[in-house]
């Protein structure tokens, strides 16, 4: 099994977190008027993916399973964290981008 350079991995996760915030700030703060609402809603998954990946990477050492019996608890903790992040994205961030979500997608 290959050894993992934890400092390098931690830097990568921090870069992903910072990149997600910068992309979110630029696209949804400064340049929001230059993009269509449909693009903004669909593209919102990119900073969400980067942020969740960075967050899970940073939290992995704290929730990493140690034995066979703890894999279920790890899956539950990881699922709860993802669910919280998804709910924040869906019910807080997306309504701020487009208050009438159905019209933004053309539905």
Automatic annotation (TrEMBL):
TM spans (from-to): 12-31, 37-59, 71-94
Keywords of the record: Membrane, Transmembrane, Transmembrane helix
Domain of life: Bacteria
Name the UniProt record assigns to this protein: Uncharacterized protein
Taxonomic source organism: Gillisia lutea
């Amino acid at each position: 099994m290959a050894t993992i350079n934890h400092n390098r991995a931690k830097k990568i996760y921090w870069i992903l977190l910072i990149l997600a915030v910068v992309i979110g700030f630029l696209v949804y703060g400064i340049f929001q008027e230059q993009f269509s609402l449909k693009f903004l809603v669909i593209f919102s998954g990119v900073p969400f993916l980067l942020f969740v990946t960075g967050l899970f990477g940073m939290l992995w050492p704290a929730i990493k399973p140690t034995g066979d019996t703890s894999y279920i608890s790890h899956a539950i903790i990881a699922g709860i964290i993802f669910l919280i992040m998804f709910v924040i994205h869906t019910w807080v961030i997306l309504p701020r981008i487009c208050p009438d979500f159905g019209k933004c997608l053309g539905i």
